[in-house]
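Collaborator request, handled under Task 6.
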Amino acid sequence: MIKTLTTIAIATSLATAANAAPLPAPPTEVYTPPVQSSCVDTTVQVYFENGASALTNHARSVISQAQQNLSGCAHGDVEMIAITSDARTQDELVELSSERIAMVSGALASEGVPIAYTKTAIDTDIEEASTLHPMTRRVEVRLTAWAPEIG
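Structure tokens returned to the collaborator:
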């Protein structure tokens, strides 16, 4: 009796396997997993032309690249420090620095970076010998980011 039941079970499973759909063909393209963003705090330098507050094409691409690097991350505080050595007076320094911060803030917002928690500062401690150096005409942007937690 057990032999008969075993034979019937084997015959049934073989018949079922014979009627099953064939397996799909293996993929022909190499699988490339999606690139994961490294959700770490990022600092970028946005440089300006002498005496100008308008963003250059390079400055826009730096901001765009920073946003792309942090896509998929949760954003926190944005800290901007304006370093402006190309102003002639203290009033001009404050005005030019504020305009540059506003331009960078606008570019960050247009790229989709949340800027609700923004801290700004103006560095007024610039040596006179450095006024022609391009490194002293910038806004340093620190973006806080971390991997989002689900659950």
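The cover message to the collaborator said: "The mean pLDDT is 83. Residues 90-110 form the longest helix (21 residues). Please let us know whether this matches your experimental observations."
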